Amino acid sequence: QVQLVESGGGLVQSGGSLRLSCAASGSIGSINAMGWHRQAPGKQRELVAVTISGGRTNYADSVKGRFTISRDNAKNTVSLQMNSLKSEDTAVYYCNAVIRRRGNVRPDDYWGQGTQVTVSS
Q1: What gap in Å lies between CA 100 and CA 67, rounded to an integer?
Q2: What is the number of other CB atoms lying within 10 angstroms of the CB of residue 73?
Q3: Tens-digit pLDDT profile for residues 55-85
Q4: What is the bridge-based pairing of β-strands 28-39 and 115-120?
């Protein structure tokens, strides 16, 4: 069993900052990638940022220069530092990880329960 637990969402004013964290736990063999997606009301879930084994990162154009993703491989955690937040960043943010469980050959996709981020204008 593998679990992803998120923390750090909340309400913030436009221009403010928030930091999201996600911890993976359970029978983890290896983690190929960890990242964040978000889903706003009435919209499809979209990729926000992802970090891949080897240190590569990828960001949605809408958050480049404002958000920073970081990963602690020793602790199996990923964080998203969100600065200069805008009202359009309001969404439920989901942690996502591609994890190979111990004893398995292929990795699977795992999701956290989601954490609400609300940016007031």
Answers
A1: 27
A2: 13
A3: 899 999 999 999 999 999 999 999 999 999 9
A4: unpaired
